[in-house]
Amino acid sequence: MKQHRLVLALASAFVLALLAALVAFNHHKPRLLVLHTYSEEGRWEKSFNEGALRALADNRAPLAVRWHYMAFSGDESLMAPREWAAASQRARQVIDRWQPDVLLAVGEEAQDYVARHYAGRAAPRVVYATGEDPARFGFPGAANVTGVREALPLAQMLELLRHLGRPQLRLRALGVADPTGRAEREQLLAFDWGPHRLLGVELAPDWPAWQQAVQGAADADMLLVLSYAGLAQSAGRPETTSPAQLVQWTERHSPALALGVRTTFAADGGALAVAPAADGLGEQAGRLALQALAAMRQGAPLPPPQDSLDFTIALRPERLAARGLQLPTIYTQAARAAGTLYLQPPAPGGPGAP
């Protein structure tokens, strides 16, 4: 009996020692926290995560990864300022308690409400992924910050324009008067559109202003539709316009061919979009996060910030055909491979759609 108890005691001691070793091992593993602005159910977020996981799959060193989502919805109009403030507090509590070595912050609100508060600190090292100008969040000059700015694929758009009209096209652009719209406008104005001509970039404050801008683009051959989420119904109605309503009305009333810069433009009923690839952005940001971890181990400075590289095509061939246009087959196949080739009619814009 005594021998049996001794064996049991030794076995228990071994298990406890093993558990203690595992706890110690996990506690000392480098930590990466991926902080998303919106819900994990969002299509864009899922695609971003697929790319980030591809990058992390190449990692061979021990690594603890945690994911946190600030919002429960992909619709920013459902979040009031006080709710963003509460979401910010929860996220910062997670960071302060878990103490990640690298914070990968994704989206505008993740930078504005959370990541910027850690810029210039010793830890964590911050990797941003956003379409906004990093200077807006005070990132330039912070030794612990690097990241990927989501750049509109304007060079690829220029290549596509060769297949859609005359050698010299007149372009107008329309977006929403918000930080995203202003950031996109900066990119368009800084780009060399030759041999085409950019006549102007208008940012609408509400739905009536958007309608007026669309109908006023009769002097253009193409209307570039920038990000359109969150457009107010009117000056007195802060409720946001239905995205499907906005896109389908724009398609019907635009004198010029409308070309979106987000794949949702085609999903909501638009003819064509050339957009940054969410999975490509995720993979690029994931690799930069791993490089930040490696730099931390080596006591080296962070790698420099980057612009996003990958893009995707989204289209509705019948909408192009209705305007007498057709793209080379390679564009159709690229959209098919990305799951952004839409062959069925879009869902109606919803009640009250013009």
Can you give a write-up of this model?
The chain is an alpha/beta fold and 354 residues long. 42% of the residues lie in helices and 20% in strands. It has helices at residues 2-28, 43-57, 81-98, 108-113, 154-161, 179-190, 207-215, 243-253, 264-267, 278-298, 317-322, 329-338, and strands at residues 31-36, 64-69, 102-106, 125-130, 145-149, 170-176, 197-204, 222-225, 232-234, 237-240, 257-260, 272-276, 306-307, 311-315. The relative contact order is 0.12. Mean pLDDT is 89; it is low at 13-27 and 350-354.
In short:
This protein is of the alpha/beta class and 354 residues long. Helix content is 42%, strand content 20%.
Helix content: 40-55%
Portion in strands: 15-25%
Ends distance: 86 Å
Largest β-sheet summary: 6 strands, parallel
What is the tally of helical segments? 12
Give the overall average pLDDT: 89
The helix-strand sequence is HEHEHEHEEHEHEHEEEHEHEHEEHH
In spatial order, strands of the major sheet run: 2-1-3-4-5-13
Q: Rg from C-alpha positions?
A: 24 Å
Poorly predicted ranges (pLDDT <50, ≥5 residues)? 13-27, 350-354
